[in-house]
Amino acid sequence: MMKILRKTLFLTTVLGITFISFLSVADCKDIDETKGLVKAGNKHVILQGEQINEGDKAPNFKVVDGTFTPVELSSFKGKTILLSVVPSLDTGVCSLQTKRFNEEVANFPNDVVMLTISADLPFAQKRFCQNEKVDKIQVLSDSVWHDFGAKYGLMIKDMGLLARSILIINKEGNVAYKEVVAQLSHHPDYVTALKALQKIEK
């Protein structure tokens, strides 16, 4: 479990956007770190939190929606869930990734849930969804507690962003598919993820 010691201001430029964020700095003895998995440009970033693998029980997590209402994974118990994780909706690839899955929702039955999760503030997410007419996939924010990023090993150290990834959780609550994109600015493998979702849903 992470022990929060202090909050530190970070100014970071990623994917052409400068982010100013107050990040919780944790005691290094109490949080796992993964190196060599993801790059931002030519430099590897450090992912904080415990890595979750295919076959693992998906940890419950708490994020917020556009009105800062808490939403937990347990709210979707018994459903197949696709998590589309992006660094920031205000970047080109993240925007396209979110709109792609927003379109794909119609191709699956109602017991399949698609969620986009980023560390953007809910205000920014709400504006994005209104401007881009994203109204089928649920867009949720990990900005309040960083609970999702920490529990899934996707929180980028010193950036306050989440690593781009796709996870699918089956009806039994287990991680059935996982892709962490090796280059932060690249697209995930949409075709493979959607084929996996079709297979898992059957």
Strand order of the largest sheet: 9-8-7-12-13
The helix/strand order is EEEEEEEHEHEHEEEEH
Structural class, from helix and strand content? alpha+beta
* CATH architecture name: 3-Layer(aba) Sandwich
| Biggest pleated-sheet summary | 5 strands, mixed
How much β-strand is present in the residues? 35-45%
How many structural domains are formed by the residues? 1
| Span between termini | 36 Å
Would you tell me the overall average pLDDT? Answer: 89
The assembly state of the depicted protein chains is: single chain
Q: Total strand count, please?
A: 13
Helical residue percent band: 10-25%
**What would the principal axes of the Cα set say about the shape?**
globular
Overall CATH class: Alpha Beta
Question: How would you characterize the overall build of this protein?
Answer:
- It is a single chain.
- With 202 residues, the chain is of the alpha+beta class.
- The chain has a single domain (33-201), classed as Glutaredoxin.
- Helices cover 21% and strands 36% of the residues.
- It has four helices and 13 strands.
- It has helices at residues 92-104, 122-132, 147-152, 190-201; strands spanning 4-14, 17-26, 33-40, 43-48, 62-64, 70-72, 80-85, 112-118, 138-141, 155-156, 161-162, 165-169, 175-180.
- The strands form four sheets. It has a five-stranded mixed sheet with strand order 9-8-7-12-13.
- A hairpin with a 5-residue loop joins strand 12 (165-169) and strand 13.
- The longest helix is centred in the middle third of the chain and has 13 residues, at 92-104.
- Mean pLDDT is 89; it is low at 1-14 and 16-28.
